[in-house]
Amino acid sequence: MTKTALITGASRGLGLALARSLAADGWRLILTARGADTLGPVADELGALALPGDVADPAHRERLARAVQDRGGLDLLVNNASGLGAVPLPKLADYPLDALEELFRANVLAPLALVQAALPWLRERRGAIVNVSSDAAVEAYEGWGGYGATKAALEQLSNVLAVEEPSVAVWWVDPGEMNTAMLAAAIGAQEAAAAPAPETVVPTLRRLIDRRPASGRITRP
């Protein structure tokens, strides 16, 4: 049976790199990202379904759930889409609370809502969830308090979900620094260019997906 994956933030970076790897192995893909102009060509390249939109929007999440239902189920949910928050990165003493609230909606509530929507199919197929996290969830980096707090919350949600849903594999993955547009926005393009490419993380993700180890926190070796 052909396996189906839903990947958020799939138009670039790690989401795109993983989508290309899964497509090469015959996976059926549902891809979403906010930028229709960039997502469309990716879907055409991979023979995937493109549903552009913001995962923080409940109406868009409903469209994604309908797409999963139309395809008969789901084997893998990858919560890769993420916001950076206020830029330049502020200290917590100066963090605009409205921006932090918006960031929690994007980085915590939206992934959880997608998990809730997908769980019936994932339980049925003994599927898997990959929640992309960050070392900022566990380390104290100046300026990264807002973003790190959202990833810490996502990690604890994942931790509890793994206990509550034993038939579904749940991995929260810290990929380390990657040369992405988000990192460039945070620290500058020149500095971000020195980080490894997102493609270097894909082998770690594929080992999880293909070998299905126990649920838990994963860091790139």
From TrEMBL:
Domain of life: Bacteria
GO MF terms held by the record: oxidoreductase activity
GO CC terms, sorted: membrane
Gene3D superfamilies linked: NAD(P)-binding Rossmann-like Domain
InterPro entries in UniProt: NAD(P)-bd_dom_sf (IPR036291), Sc_DH/Rdtase_CS (IPR020904), SDR_fam (IPR002347)
UniProt entry keywords in alphabetical sequence: Oxidoreductase
SUPFAM superfamilies found in the cross-reference section: NAD(P)-binding Rossmann-fold domains
Pfam families reported for this sequence: adh_short
Family per similarity comment: Belongs to the short-chain dehydrogenases/reductases (SDR) family.
Protein name: Short-chain dehydrogenase
Organism: Streptosporangium carneum
